[in-house]
Design brief:
The complex is a heterodimer of chains A (about 190) and B (about 400).
Chain A (H helix, E strand, L loop, with lengths): L4 H6 L17 E9 L3 H9 L11 E6 L4 E7 L5 E12 L3 E6 L7 E9 L5 E9 L6 H9 L3 H18 L9 H8 L1
Chain B lengths: L1 E7 L2 E6 L11 E10 L1 H7 L10 E2 L3 E9 L10 E4 L2 E2 L5 H4 L15 H8 L5 E2 L16 E4 L7 E2 L6 H4 L5 H11 L7 E5 L3 H12 L4 E6 L2 H9 L3 E4 L5 H8 L7 E4 L14 H6 L9 H9 L5 E4 L12 H6 L3 E4 L4 H13 L11 E4 L3 H10 L7 E4 L9
Parallel strand pairs in B: 11-12, 11-14, 12-13, 14-15, 15-16, 17-18
Antiparallel strand pairs in B: 1-2, 1-4, 3-5, 3-9, 3-18, 5-6, 6-10, 7-8
The chains are: A alpha+beta (about 190), B alpha/beta (about 400).
Chain lengths: ~190, ~400
């Protein structure tokens, strides 16, 4: 289990700390899991190149690789603006997990870990744990857009799209026309 | 193209809308040649299914000709296909177990939240059946976009008419699965509540699986007659006491297996199309459950209960005590159509199952609104309406 050893010590059962009924501190901490019918190595390989993630993350406009561990994330902000921050891979275990941390000057301070756990015949459990600072001031609107109102919901939806792409080779849409699809993705 | 669209309670219209396009590699576009109105479409027509939006194209029983394919579709232009109403990817864990209606990926990611809130886990996508099941455009139209076309549609051999194979899309596999879920043993007596299309196919299927007797229960004389043609004994619940009759007809034992093919009828779940509201109002309304209650009451000790009938919300007065004390088994679920299609197509080719008896009316797509009204108002005479987009008004019968 990842993260926050203080919280783990408070725990009296085997449930993940992120499902605790009491909040483990000031930071928002969420976890979401999805099981994907593919080997861990394939899924890790996709995730290790963050540029791939644009396809599954609904609110991210672009992810640009700066070097092997640093990438620049850009989201659309209100009034046609863009806001970017850098994300740095801080820990990397091939085929098993990737931990990241936003650069110290980031407007959207966040950190997290994605784990790839072998699930035998069912494939791989992909577990995302994300911590972020609650938004302040003018950046609030942007963060609301980035994580929508419920970051947990957003993470869950992004993981579902990741699963669809990995299992089926495409992301399911109910759109009937290209125009509708573009509106959905706007 | 022209398409039958939903606009509200008892308000469906044939509108001109944009043609569908290939959007994903595994897609195909089908030109519809036949599409039926399903009893469950009436739940939409009556406005009881939440998450419908004005302009939604209805229809989940359809077939036609392949006119366009994505690069990863295995279909070829010109092929005639029947399309399953469940949208399943074929590659997830559940599809691997042939539980296609439980497909993880057929429902678009953002839509899955509704199913998760309501049921704990979201089910597959369905064509033309509200945004709870994906918000996919249905097949009561001239054309339809079919996702995962390499997994779902089954190619129809030459020489078979549309009318013979159309019901592979939903009601025939649903009736078959209902009988399979009843775990029928040779010599069994099976009681079927509801002689709509699913009930009537369950009657046929139960006999094919070795039932000695099938007892069909309804209140529409014409539908009971159809059941009789397939060898069922009948109970008209307006004329006879169902439980008393069943006990007497089975020598005081009760049916070995019971099948509820009636379902929620008019009392569905409330119109409640926002997740937050679903969270806030956990009661959602109460499904009308008379038939399942009666089925459980009549079923013999240690017997089997199969429930193809559609329920959406919560129930009151479910006879949990009778269910536990008698040691019953319940099997249910949306149909895994893809699993049953090949074998049932063979059964049709070999003449073991008749499907055409069901069709009472054929009409052009343009007349679909009249069709809905007729099906809704006259359930005795109208057993099944098939819409034919290309048909002239003069050919309608």
């Amino acid at each position: 289990m990842p993260i926050d050893t203080d919280a783990l010590e408070r725990s009296h059962d085997d449930a993940p700390v992120t499902s605790s009924k009491s909040k483990p501190g000031d930071r928002e901490l969420i976890a979401e899991s999805v099981t994907i019918n593919r080997p861990a190595a394939d899924l890790y390989g996709f995730w290790r190149n963050p540029a791939n993630l644009v396809a599954v993350m609904a609110n991210i406009q672009s992810i640009e690789m700066i070097d092997d561990v640093r990438s620049r994330w850009t989201v659309k902000a209100p009034a046609g603006q863009e806001v970017s921050w850098d994300s740095i891979i801080t820990h990397d275990v091939e085929g098993r997990e990737i931990t990241w941390q936003s650069a110290p000057d980031a407007d959207v301070a966040n950190s997290g870990r994605i784990e790839f756990i072998d699930a035998g015949k069912r494939g791989t459990i992909v577990r995302a744990t994300i911590a972020y600072e609650p938004p302040f001031g003018t950046i609030g609107k942007l963060v609301a857009k980035l994580f929508q109102r419920e970051p947990k919901l957003q993470a869950r939806r992004d993981l579902r799209r990741f699963k669809q792409l990995m299992e089926t080779g495409e992301i399911a849409t109910a759109a009937r026309t290209r125009k509708q699809l573009e509106e959905e993705n706007a | 193209m022209r398409a039958l669209t939903w606009h509200g309670k008892h308000d469906v219209r044939v509108d001109t809308v944009d043609d569908p396009e290939i959007l994903n590699p595994r897609d195909a576009i089908i030109k519809i040649t036949s599409t039926a109105i399903c009893g469950s479409d009436l739940h939409l027509y009556d406005g009881y299914i939440p998450t419908m939006q004005a302009g939604d194209i209805l229809g989940h029983e359809f077939m036609g000709e392949v006119v366009e394919t994505g690069p990863k579709s295995t279909l070829q232009k010109g092929q005639r296909v029947v399309v399953p109403f469940t949208i399943a990817c074929g590659s997830c864990y559940h599809c691997g177990k042939h539980q296609y209606s439980a497909c993880d990926n057929g429902n678009p990611a953002d839509n899955q939240d509704i199913g998760r809130e309501m049921y704990g886990q979201p089910m597959s996508g369905l064509f033309g059946y509200s945004h709870l099941t994906g918000g996919y455009a249905g097949g009561q139209a001239e054309y339809v976009r079919v996702p995962f076309s390499d997994v779902g549609p089954i190619v129809v051999p030459d020489g078979l008419d549309d009318d013979e194979v159309l019901f592979l899309s939903d009601i025939l596999p649903t009736g078959w699965q209902a009988a399979e879920n009843a775990d029928i043993e040779p010599g069994d007596t099976v009681a079927v509540w509801g002689c709509g299309p699913v009930g009537l196919f369950a009657v046929q299927s139960a006999f094919l699986m070795g039932a000695k007797r099938v007892i069909a229960i309804d209140h529409f004389p014409h539908r009971l007659e159809l059941a009789k043609k397939f060898g069922a004994e009948t109970i008209n619940f307006e004329e006879s006491k169902t439980y008393e009759a069943l006990m007497d007809m089975t020598g005081g034992i009760g049916p070995d297996a019971v099948i509820d093919a009636v379902g929620l009828e008019a009392h569905g779940f409330f119109v409640d199309n926002v997740i937050d509201q679903i969270k806030a109002t956990m009661f959602l309304g109460t499904d009308r459950t008379h038939s399942i209650r009666q089925a459980i009451h009549a079923c013999r000790k240690g017997g089997r209960v199969s429930m193809p009938a559609v329920y959406g919300g919560f129930v009151d007065k479910f006879p949990l005590g009778a269910f536990m004390e008698k040691g019953l088994t319940l099997k249910t679920g949306q149909t895994s159509v893809q699993h049953y299609m090949p074998a049932l197509l063979n059964a049709i080719v070999e003449g073991k199952i008749d499907t055409t008896f069901l069709i009472s009316h054929r009409m052009p797509l343009e007349q679909a609104p009249e069709g809905y009204k007729m099906f809704h108002d006259k359930q005795n005479e109208v057993t099944k309406i098939v819409l034919k987009p290309g048909m002239d008004l003069a050919q309608a019968a």
